[in-house]
Description:
Blueprint: H1 3-19, H2 23-31, H3 34-42, H4 60-75, H5 84-93, E1 100-104, H6 106-109, H7 113-116, E2 122-126, H8 132-142, E3 150-154, H9 157-161, H10 169-185, E4 189-193, H11 206-211, H12 214-231, E5 234-236, H13 239-242, H14 262-281
Helix pairs in contact: 1-4, 2-3, 3-4, 8-10, 10-12
Amino acid sequence: xxxxxxxxxxxxxxxxxxxxxxxxxxxxxxxxxxxxxxxxxxxxxxxxxxxxxxxxxxxxxxxxxxxxxxxxxxxxxxxxxxxxxxxxxxxxxxxxxxxxxxxxxxxxxxxxxxxxxxxxxxxxxxxxxxxxxxxxxxxxxxxxxxxxxxxxxxxxxxxxxxxxxxxxxxxxxxxxxxxxxxxxxxxxxxxxxxxxxxxxxxxxxxxxxxxxxxxxxxxxxxxxxxxxxxxxxxxxxxxxxxxxxxxxxxxxxxxxxxxxxxxxxxxxxxxxxxxxxxxxxxx
Length: 283
């Protein structure tokens, strides 16, 4: 197969997928920020027609969200374009002492770090909806090249939900281990944050909760804690600080059951600061 044929097949696939998107998904992709787009698409109440070639997840909102992302996944799987210019600007500034990169998905993306870490050289590199294989693709650009002293990695909830397809826990763990090994090879201290629990106390939270079985969250968190202990890395336990008596995220910390509000981030911030201090002491 020559290059012209490959390009034709690729363009045909993109056009076929784009043509099947609903108006809601299309508008969200063009105008909404990543986190809002994710929420709007996945919480849509209208029934959607499955996109040809994309297996249904059983959740209309998630099917719609996955269909809306198909063109991007074909052209920029890791979404390197999101932070490319910002990274280049930081590199022009030269090395910054005690820089820390917060790396992850929408829970990181939505976190206004300046509200909780005033004056700190902390950099947000979260992208809403991402899974660990996508994060691994951009880890060099968005973390290693910035030469931080430490990286706080919060990832895995979207893998469990199946944002980019079904994935086993051991594959999630392998991706996380690869990030850690890359960071370690470049002298970057690794802080692994636990996956947060999810609740189902509100109408908006039902799908997010159903897509993320609590047992899987606990299993990955156990692996993270054990991995950190065996490899001299810091385990940042958000889970224990935000879980309620039923094993779910406290209702008052997230309206949609998944994404922390300001009260949630206020709890998480000092835990992150303590973990960063611990990592710095261990270098």
